[in-house]
């Protein structure tokens, strides 16, 4: 069983920013920042070919009815994941190229390793961001503290080796209870040892529509001038295309209700102003032809609106750090709050 280390436990926060919320003051007076995120996992999932005990049961086309195979290959599942890397990912890349938008890739290192042309395209041609989504698409919640640290380091270094870009943002989603609070410390250590960048942001949270700062428990006894805190850029489940394969989810496999929900979410955040919207994607899900058309409808809708900043999470974090630099005890940093 994993050991809980108090110095890495981030406190819960039930208050947030209150009735007036928080205006992130996006560049060029944009009303909303839109973050498309492609979870690239194909080839990093469970497979006996990778030494796992069973095939991948999660987030593929047959959903909960698909099941898995113990100690054997399950070609149905394998090939649904392969569709994502062979076909779906390129369909999505063509869509974003059409609109001229940069997105963030939550990249699993093993998946990138098996499709190097995709990693090369993302970094060298398209200018998309590479963020750290782990060595493989597996839970690692029970690693001890040293193996936990090593996992973060190894995944960062492997993504740099494969794609040419060192990930300055992180979203694992399947980590130990210690990992989210350790990330700045691990990155700082790597910075000293390897000269790699420090952590720019973490997306290991789902509790707001705007970025915010958190104080780090292990920095509590440092002078304020030496504290660095951690910037969180929240992620979301409700707009995630993974809900096509889980309940309660988008009830139309063709995606019409998906489009409607994305538009409703956008309209609400756009009306409020100063917020960000996540659109989490998977190439084996929204990369399917019918669902990509549903996504295209949403893209077309927001492309006609004024004051929409479609951007990477790296650029969101860079803007926020510049406009609201860290200030101990403040969610909004130099902006107060």
Structure description:
This protein has 337 residues and is of the alpha/beta class. It has a domain at 39-236 and 313-335: Alpha-Beta Barrel (TIM Barrel). Helices cover 36% and strands 11% of the residues. It is built from 8 helices and 9 strands. The chain has helices spanning 75-99, 109-114, 116-126, 145-163, 179-194, 256-272, 289-303, 313-323; strands at residues 32-40, 104-107, 129-132, 169-170, 201-202, 212-214, 230-232, 275-282, 308-310. The strands form 3 sheets. Strands 1, 2, 3, 8 and 9 form a 5-stranded parallel β-sheet that branches. A two-stranded parallel sheet has the order 4-5. Strands 6-7 form a two-stranded antiparallel sheet. Helix 1 (75-99) links the parallel strand 1 (32-40) and strand 2. The two termini are 38 Å apart.
């Amino acid at each position: 069983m994993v050991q809980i280390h108090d110095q890495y436990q981030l406190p819960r926060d039930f208050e947030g920013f209150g009735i007036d919320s928080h205006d992130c003051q996006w560049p060029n007076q944009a009303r909303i920042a839109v973050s498309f995120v492609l979870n690239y996992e194909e080839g990093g999932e469970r497979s006996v070919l990778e030494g796992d005990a069973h095939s991948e049961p999660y987030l593929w086309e047959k959903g909960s009815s698909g099941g898995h195979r113990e100690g054997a290959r399950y070609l149905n599942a394998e090939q649904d994941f392969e569709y994502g890397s062979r076909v779906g990912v390129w369909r999505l890349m063509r869509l974003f190229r059409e609109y001229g938008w940069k997105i963030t890739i939550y990249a699993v290192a093993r998946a990138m390793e098996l499709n190097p042309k995709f990693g090369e395209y993302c970094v060298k041609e398209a200018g998309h961001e590479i963020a750290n989504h782990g060595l493989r698409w597996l839970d690692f919640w029970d690693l001890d503290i040293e193996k936990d640290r090593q996992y973060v380091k190894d995944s960062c270094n492997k993504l740099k080796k494969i794609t040419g870009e060192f990930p300055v943002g992180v979203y694992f989603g399947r980590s130990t209870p210690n990992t989210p609070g350790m990330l700045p410390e691990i990155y700082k250590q790597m910075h000293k040892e390897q000269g790699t960048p420090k952590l720019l942001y973490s997306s290991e949270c789902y509790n707001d529509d705007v970025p915010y700062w958190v104080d780090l428990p292990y920095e509590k006894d440092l002078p304020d001038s030496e504290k660095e805190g951690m910037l969180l850029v929240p992620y979301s489940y409700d707009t995630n295309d993974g809900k096509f394969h889980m309940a309660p989810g988008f009830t139309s496999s063709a995606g019409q209700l998906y489009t409607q929900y994305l538009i409703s979410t956008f309209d609400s955040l756009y009306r409020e102003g100063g917020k960000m919207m996540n659109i989490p994607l998977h190439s084996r899900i929204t990369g399917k032809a019918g669902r990509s058309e549903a996504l295209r409808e949403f893209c077309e809708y927001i492309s006609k609106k004024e004051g929409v900043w479609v951007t990477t999470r790296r650029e969101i974090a860079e803007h926020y750090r510049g406009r609201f630099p860290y200030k101990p005890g403040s969610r909004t940093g130099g902006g107060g709050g």
